Prior knowledge:
Elements: E1 8-11, H1 18-24, E2 29-32, H2 39-46, E3 51-53, H3 57-60, H4 73-78, E4 84-86, H5 97-102, E5 106-108, H6 115-131, H7 133-142, E6 160-164, H8 168-177, E7 183-187, H9 193-198, E8 202-203, H10 206-212, E9 215-218, H11 232-237, E10 243-246, H12 255-264, E11 269-272, E12 292-294, H13 303-321, H14 335-346
Amino acid sequence: MISAARPRLVYERWTDPVAGELLGRAEIEVVRLDLQASAEEGWAALESAHGYQVATRTDVAGADNGDQWLAGQALVVRCPNLLAVCSAGAGYDVIDVEACTRAGIAVCNNSGPGAEAVAEHALGFMLDLAKKVTVADRALRRGPLGDRMTLQGTQLAGKTLGVVGLGAIGGRLVELCAPFGMDVLAFDPYLDGNAARSRGVTAVGLDELVERSDFVQVTCPLTNETRGLFGARQFAAMKPTAFFITTARGPVHDEEALYAALVSGSIAGAGLDVFHEEPPRHDNPLLRLDTVVATPHTAGITVEAARDIAVATAGQWQAIFEGRRPPRLLNPEVWPRYRDRFRDILGVAPEPATVGVR
């Protein structure tokens, strides 16, 4: 069911051109938001939009007043016809879910399609840190090596992995680590003990996880619950031989506290794909440490993931504008009001509410 009025979708960019190709075959007007154009041009596109594929924080970092293009309260108020906003990946910290819900706007993410890429990246961090691959590479490039025994690493086999957030990414990482025979702990308030056991992990509290783990891997989204989840207390509780790895979002951990823990030797090293400021400044103190392996939020950027995400993105927008319940709806409680707004704005009513799991 395509709506009576032609819906308008505004996006900043697709992860792969296939999204535009797929949407081009549907009865949807697709408009690109040029972050380098004037604000007036941007608002002209957005104020009449019915859907918004919201720009990421990294995308808007170089734009004037870039935060205005994130889906916050101000944007919601200024775009009265907006029915749905979606993030490009699993993270949705670029969207104020509460503001959207109050306004009757559906919020979706794109969890799942990029999980393989991020989980493999996380495993790569684990192997790199344990085997001191990057540390050894840097030492070789600096000059005469000296005693190679100073580069002695460790193994993953038999170690304890602690996963914070057992969603699509965390779950896939557990599968990838299975051949190493690791003991896997998981902290996830939305995961019960039976579900954890069925996935081969032990559900524990955060305190127990950080105390017992040799590798602490953070894969949770950035929410009010997870902001500042890792601070000085958590790092102090970790083993001095343990590694902290995150492919989540920078504000989940305290960068100053992490730096202090690394410099003092409270933990052995860190693998960081995310920072508070992205891209991170070249003089970020963490980047000066040999115990840190870092990438600029590229864990999910693979050829395969980009295409999979683009296909899923297009499919989700097609579902939305055909009046179907989107597959990755984050605020299912919005559905009754959303249906009324959809009918008033586009002339037809979406399917009735069904029981959904966030």
